[in-house]
Amino acid sequence: DSGVTQTPKHLITxxxxxxxxxxxxxxxxxxxxxxxxxxxxxxxxLIQYYNGEERAKGNILERFSAQQFxxxxxxxxxxxxxxxDSALYFCASSVGVLxxxxxxxxxxxxxxxx
Amino acid sequence: xxxVEQNPLFLSMQEGKNYTIYCNYSTTSDRLYWxxxxxxxxxxxxxxxxxxxxxxxxxxxxxxxxxxxRLSTLHITAAVHDLSATYFCVSWDSNYQLIWGAGTKLxxxx
Lengths: 114, 110
What we know:
The structure holds two protein chains of two kinds. Chain A is mostly beta strands. Chain A is built from no helices and eleven strands. In chain A, strands 2, 4, 5, 6, 9, 10 and 11 form a seven-stranded mixed β-sheet that branches. A four-stranded antiparallel β-sheet of chain A has the order 1-3-8-7, with no helix packed on it. By secondary structure, chain B is an all-beta fold. In chain B, the strands form two sheets. In chain B, strands 2, 4, 5, 9, 10 and 11 form a six-stranded mixed β-sheet that branches. Chains A and B meet through β9 and β10 of A and β5 of B.
């Protein structure tokens, strides 16, 4: 158990809908990262927050947005969902702001868009 | 474009055999991570290599780092079925953002 929690574990929704994925980092970690992993694919970095502020952006679509709240939990919002958005979404946390810190991953949310 | 390239991307081997996964990177980083992912599961940090010449071992896995060659290796000794997983190596760019390799899917047959 990494100490990072994600909810929900599974999510099934229809095209065009909007969903919110939630992540709570390990105690003491200030950075939260979001990743997307499509079937049998590698990890795509989406976005990083550090202590409430956006720190880095990767290949995140305009339909996707995220935020980190004062209690350091983070939410990833996915809107106007398409079939291709079906994937595993991972949240990771680390203690520092730089990507060089070791990241601890949550169990992931499996999103299925039908 | 900065890259982290793993070789091979897929490896099927018999139990008891030895093999090496290679990770070449084009960044100037002096450290590198290895992560493991079981099918449909989350990722787990395996090794943190912090300097040139670093070698770390855990069980049947040994990782090393040669920053001059920009090469890291993950060596599997006397493979067992439980090591079947996908292994990722990770470096980072000058902005300290992670660059992930594509992963090596390892299948170990009994």
